[in-house]
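Hi support team,

I'm opening this ticket because the web form for multi-chain structure prediction keeps timing out on my end. I have pasted the exact lines I submitted so you can reproduce it. The total is 704 residues across four entries, so I didn't expect it to be a heavy job. Is there a limit I'm missing, or should I split the entries? Thanks in advance, R.K.
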Amino acid sequence: MQKISNKTATIFDVAEKAGVSRGTVDRVIYGRGRVSQQTRDKVHKAIEELDYSPNTNASKLASRKEYAFSCLIPEFRKGDYWEEMNNGFLAAARDYSSYNINLTIHHYDQQDVDSFIRESEAILSEKPAGVIMNTVFREEVTAFCKKLEGSGIPYAFVDNKIDELDYTLYYGVDPYKSGALGAWLLTNRTDPEEIALVRLLRDPSHKADPNRPRRHGFSDYIEDFFPKCKIHTVFIDPEKPGSILSTLESFFGQHPGIRHIAMTNSRVYLLGEYLRKHPSEGRIVIGFDDLDKNLACLKEGIIDALVTRHIPLQAYNALTTFADCIIRNRRPAHKNHFVHMDILTQMNLDNY
Amino acid sequence: MQKISNKTATIFDVAEKAGVSRGTVDRVIYGRGRVSQQTRDKVHKAIEELDYSPNTNASKLASRKEYAFSCLIPEFRKGDYWEEMNNGFLAAARDYSSYNINLTIHHYDQQDVDSFIRESEAILSEKPAGVIMNTVFREEVTAFCKKLEGSGIPYAFVDNKIDELDYTLYYGVDPYKSGALGAWLLTNRTDPEEIALVRLLRDPSHKADPNRPRRHGFSDYIEDFFPKCKIHTVFIDPEKPGSILSTLESFFGQHPGIRHIAMTNSRVYLLGEYLRKHPSEGRIVIGFDDLDKNLACLKEGIIDALVTRHIPLQAYNALTTFADCIIRNRRPAHKNHFVHMDILTQMNLDNY
DNA sequence: GTGAAAGCGCTAACAT
DNA sequence: ATGTTAGCGCTTTCAC
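Hello R.K., no limit was hit. The queue was backed up. Here is the completed structure from your submission:
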């Protein structure tokens, strides 16, 4: 029999033991003011001896300082990947509202660098307590981050990152590994001779290619394990949904031997119409991310597996962890928080 | 651009708007006392109009009532399944200590019904605010729950449940489905002709067989999809680790054609020695639950996949959700909380 | 550099 | 049946 009860020490106990006031203990813990080294030591000693840890409820309740966070992510349409992210941020902001957090989410057009620059300038003028963003435009993100550093504003990355920068926190999967996992799933059942990698046609002028690491993880895996396998790339145009079916019919007409199909972006559901119209025994289709439309395809049985993680949860955790760091004036326990990748199939689709 | 800020209404605002005192609002919200229907309506109206929701930080902080929870689960050795569960409960109790929760965990011997009865009697005499347990001994659990109902003590199940009983909450996977998922994983790569199902030899007198539903899910799947496949059962004795290797060598010596091996309990790591000593190309081994030892086998590559979920998290969520219900005097949003089943392979083992 | 004290929003015991 | 009020443990402003 084990008993857990709960007479935890309070800040008052620490103050008493250290022979100082509660205010001083608070200063020591969070580095909120100048405290003499001597008092600092006494307080740390008392904390240790009492095994004190702050009551977060009281802390949140009493905290009256306002923290403004800015978020800079791609704009989206209903059901898109970034809508899920957005929802996660909103949920975090709501749940942390008792911490006096407010969040401003800025959206930019992934096809338009200028929109990114415009929004990032807007954020700078807001002087937020912290910024959280993804890193599609490498160069511009770097420039923005340097400015943030200049203003002493900490920033965090979600989904992808730029290793060279001094970010506070990263939350996301290892994209390269996720690509490899997708390749494994695709080839687990049967060895591939030819693979179709379906990609999204994007405006050739735009500079972002956020899925590159994942794609490389995918193709490296295939090259390593199936060196004789040929990967065919076919582009479909998400802006012209009506064209997708015929593009695919024409492509697969020319490559009748392909049984393995993958899409390394989040929109494998775009294949739905084609797959439904051309059922094929022994064909395997994999995709990424748990968009509702993707899950529906999985359920329907026209795609076989998804590599994903809880998107909103990732955003939620990123913001709350980042906020905790800033409020507590701390660095995070882990700077890089790699998120576990889930494998989703028809067999374990429920309750996700 | 979206802005989320946070001027949430307080209980004071609600009281003012409804023209009553804060105490009354509290009574209405949590049904803590007698309030006239008229005031009740006024308060509900004010809550609605202000979109009020209680500040949980303040709530937890102010709550001084003590809640004693009792937990009744199997005893365990280091690294066992139930140790993980136990850890989850402990973590929940710690995190909720500011809610004045204390937890008493009772352990019984899964081989010994009497120990279960003894511990359950002890719990009854403790008169806890709630009891959380698993349901290995169907009959005795039922009797115990009836007594709890008689004393007005709510109870929750983890891991498995007895549908007929009036439990407050259940947290766990659908065990039947988890078995089917295991079977799918086992047979995904190659069709099986013969399967070895390795089971634990247990004292024949003991009444518990907690893995039966999972085993049935497993075998039903195989029968459905591979009707010609023969499932061989072999028992190993976990109490005599030294005997396992020879048992398996003898068994597989007699069945040299077997390439598919499954264990539907949590201890697939017990096969480690045999698998390591007898490597075999094209053999597939699957197991259940993310015990550290199982994960090590997965990493080593001697087993191929695990079906699992975050065990401590499941316990954690079960206790915290249950406690919330009791403290708030509410029923849970979902009585049955089916947990998602994760597929773990070498490819997505990291960061789990 | 440090202490004192007024809240934060809520609960629960005590009044009425 | 409803109002009043003293805390819960912490933050933060204001004094010194």
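A quick check on our side: The longest strand of chain A covers residues 67-74. Let us know if the file doesn't open in your viewer.
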